[in-house]
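Same chain as my last thread, 237 residues:
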Amino acid sequence: MAQTSMRISNHFPNPQTSISSTPYREIRATYDSETITVYQAYSSSIALPAVAAQKLNASPAFKPTRMTWVKPSWAWMMYISPYFYPARRKQQRSLLHVCYSFKDPGQERILAIKMTHSNFRQLLLQASVTGHGNIMTAEDQAKPVRVQWDPERSVRLEMLPYRSIQIGISGEVGVKWVEEWIESIEDVTEMARGLKQVLDDEADVGEEELIVRGLVPTERVYELDEELSAILKMDER
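reply #2:
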C-alpha cells in the first residue's frame, strides 16, 4: 500500500508559489487507505454499460486485449479529453478559449476507475518505461504494461515543468485488470463539463474553490517503494 503523503499537488501554478521542488517524475493521485483512482475516456457504447454493470467489459465494444491508457492525474485527463481538446499551436492567442472541443464520439464519456493499492502495484511491477530517448530491451518490449512520463498540465492546460504518469495496459494483464482488479467505475463526464464551464465563465477562479465545488479532486503524492521506483525510472529525466 502506498504511504500517505499530505502534500497536495498544485495544478494551478501561482507566480508566488514555487513549483521547483516538485520532482521531475512523481505520481499524484486521488486515493484513500484502500484504493487509488485512475481515469480514461471511452465511447458511450462502452462507458454506459460499464457503469451500469460495474464491469468495463460489459459491452462487446470493449476489447480487453487492446491497450488502454489510464492516468491518475485529473488535469492530464482533461488535457486529452474531448472537452478540453487543446490546439497545440503556440501562436494562438488564448489557450483556454480555443482548446475545447466536443466532437470526439469515441471518447465522450470519462470514467473514474478505482483499484486497490495492491493491484495497482501489481500492474506497475509489470511495466516498462517508454518514451523519447528511452531504449527498450527485448525484455522491456515483452512486458504487458507500458508507462509514459508526459508533461503534467494545470487544469487550464498549461504545461508544467514536471511529469505525469500514463499507464498502458494490454494482453493478459488487460484481461485480468478488467475481470479482477477494478473495484468500482464512476462516470465523471459531468464533472469535466462543469469544470470547463466554470473556467470559461470565471477567469480568476482558484484551485481551492474548484475543489470545494467538486470540480477538481484533491490529489496527493503517491509514494512508491524502491522496487517500483527503479522499474518506473523515477530518478531519470
